[in-house]
Amino acid sequence: MAAQITLSNFKFGFTAIVDDMNLALQLQTIKSTDVTIDSCAYGTLSARTFKIKLNFLFTTFKIVINQWLGSLNIVFPDQIGNLFMLSDLTIEYFDNYIFAGMTPTFIGEPANAVALHHYLTQE
Fold first, then answer.
1. Which DSSP state fits 95?
2. Distance in angstroms (rounded) separating the CA atoms of residues 6 and 11
3. In whole angstroms, what is the distance from residue 21 CA to residue 79 CA?
4. Are 32 and 51 in contact (CB under 8 A)?
5. CA angle, 74 then 80 then 81, to 5°
6. DSSP assignment of 3-38, as one string?
7. Separate counts of helices (H) and strands (E) for the chain
8. What is the pLDDT of residue 67?
9. Are 86 and 102 in contact (CB under 8 A)?
């Protein structure tokens, strides 16, 4: 038994809660809006019925996925070596892109800053 099915136009929504340098994720939406049955070797398969059952499966497993995500302890590092402290973690989503930003603060010795500047600016 085999069938070839194309899924497209997924809707995926999540919440990312930032607390200091800790991140908590929560899945809000996962849904397939377009289902196409390309071929089915064992009879007729309804794209509408398949989509309804698939989205029900996504909704059911969203609970399990959120329990798993809730158990994760996602901590971003707050220091890079002995040169930078990181703070102000920001996560944003726009136009299918995820942006993550942090503020670096130089904490190293002044001699390291000169050496780092020289290394970064040489051609």
1. T
2. 15
3. 11
4. yes
5. 130
6. EEEEEEEEEEEEEEEEETTEEEEEEEEEEEEEEEEE
7. 2, 6
8. 94
9. yes
Distance CA 12, CA 38 (A): 24
Looking at residue 45, its amino acid is L
Specify the amino acid at residue 54.
L
Residue count of the chain: 123
Average pLDDT across the chain, whole number: 85
The region, left, alpha or beta by phi > 0 then psi within -120 to 50, assigned to residue 49 is alpha
Type and span of the H or E element at 88: strand 84-94
Q: For residues 60-69, give the mean pLDDT.
A: 92
Joined tokens for residue 72: 């994760």
The β-bridge partners of 93 are 98
Return the structure tokens found at 106.
């130089």
